[in-house]
User: What shape does this take?
Amino acid sequence: MTEQALQKQLTSRSIRSFVIRKGRLTKAQAAAMDNLLPKYGIQYQEDQLLDLPTDKPTWLEIGFGNGDALIDMATRYPDNDFIGIEVHEPGVGQALMGIDASGLTNVNIIQHDAMEVLQHMVPEASLQRVLLFFPDPWRKKRHFKRRIVQTEFIELVADKLEPDGVLHCATDWQDYAEWMLEKINVCERLKNQSDTDEDSPRPEWRTKTRFEQRGERLGHNVADLLYTRI
Ligand SMILES: C[S@@+](CC[C@H](N)C(=O)[O-])C[C@H]1O[C@@H](n2cnc3c(N)ncnc32)[C@H](O)[C@@H]1O
Assistant: This one.
């Protein structure tokens, strides 16, 4: 689907956490969209529940960018099943190239709004992990409503996590970390893994993504927030 077609389809979305940017595809990314999306992609379909494997854990990454973390996690954990959701077409194309080059068979991609995918395609209590790495911080006050971490999102994630499943967010924006803590700490179905209800140590396996590296160049600290579904 083109980004323009996606934009049209999304006129009624609840949290507008992204704007469709007119990103230019490289030739290789365009070829990946033509040749690899049919292989690794799952078409968004309203109220068509995903047929997730019952014999292995499913990890779902929201807003995977170029797929750095997704590809790394799928390589490290070959016995897990991975679903990546991203709207930005050049990122999807880039990730498809990386998935194919790594010979991964445990990753699928959905190019669509994560809120709608969660609402309409993900079965209840089906995910072992939901990963949200370096979501757009929407730093201006008038844009705070665009931050994906809102009560509606948090409750949806809690619906979709299996018991003991984990929501893992990471951000390099201090005020977004505080915002997330304030909003997620009050969810009765998600327990902060930090005894002090703050951020947790960074898990050693979490790959440094492009946005994380940019944050580090700007001198930002990174906060990992981990919550267990109770
Ligand atoms: C700041 S980038 C971070 C990308 C990557 N996680 C990283 O760390 O490099 C945030 C990404 O989330 C995507 N995004 C934002 N809202 C989304 C949504 N509702 N559904 C799917 N992707 C979304 C954006 O397109 C963007 O690529």
